[in-house]
Specification:
The chain is of the alpha+beta class. It folds into three domains: 60 residues, Nucleic acid-binding proteins (OB fold (Dihydrolipoamide Acetyltransferase, E2P), Beta Barrel), CATH 2.40.50; 82 residues, 5' to 3' exonuclease, C-terminal subdomain (DNA polymerase, domain 1, Orthogonal Bundle), CATH 1.10.150; 44 residues, Ubiquitin-associated (UBA) domain (Helicase, Ruva Protein, domain 3, Orthogonal Bundle). Helices cover 47% and strands 19% of the residues. The chain has a five-stranded mixed β-barrel. The protein is globular.
């Protein structure tokens, strides 16, 4: 797609997943390998390497680099784009936030004014958390009220049990990276959120 400034903007990729090493991905699109970065929320929902995948993307063009970020859902990409509009929140911090909790959980924290839960995320101190609540609450309320096409439905989808488990561990006081690692080493196939949390706590004891 080309915008009014004649710059190429990549909004979606469909291809085969070649490599996945958090936070980096490599996708083969008709013989061209695209390198992307993604949150842990997206990583938990990725297929095995060699399988086909569709990712919604956001492209950041800087003087020294062109960076591509991938998201499993439109809701997550929308939240990423909303976050990077906030002063002091760049793509790296936005990705970290969305690695620590799902877009839906983050939205819930903002709408409920729960800045305390946000401080559990790496790189988010008390002042940053409070600023996020103040600056994002009105935007998220408006986004919900106008029900952006494709986004409202995504936000209502039930979270993946793994995402729920990581969020729960963070709420218990674990750092996002530690919580992700505790879950990553587990066999989570066909397990409920409660079973994953119990196994993670037993393994981390």
């Amino acid at each position: 797609m080309v915008d009014g400034d004649d710059k190429t903007v990549i909004g979606q990729l469909k291809g085969f997943l070649l490599e996945k090493q958090p936070p980096a991905l490599l996708i083969d699109v008709q013989g061209v390998g695209y390198e992307l970065e993604a949150s842990m929320s997206t990583f938990y929902n990725l297929p095995e390497c060699g399988e086909e995948i569709i990712l919604h993307t956001h492209m950041v063009v800087r003087e020294d680099a062109q960076l591509l970020y991938g998201f499993i859902s439109l809701a997550e990409r929308l939240m990423f784009r909303t976050l990077i509009k906030i002063s002091g929140v760049g793509p790296k911090l936005a990705l970290t936030i969305l690695s620590g909790m799902s877009a839906e959980d983050f939205s819930r924290c903002i709408l409920e004014g729960d800045s305390k839960s946000l401080t559990q995320l790496p790189g988010v101190g008390k002042k940053t958390a409070e600023r996020l609540v103040v600056e994002l609450k009105d935007r998220l309320e408006k986004a919900d009220s106008i029900k952006l096409p494709g986004v409202a439905a995504e936000m209502k989808k039930p979270d993946h049990p793994v995402n729920d488990a990581v969020s729960a561990l963070i709420s218990l006081g674990y750092k996002a990276q530690q919580a992700s690692q505790m879950v990553r080493v587990l066999d989570v196939d066909d397990k409920s959120t409660e079973e994953i949390i119990r196994a993670a706590l037993q393994g981390g004891a």
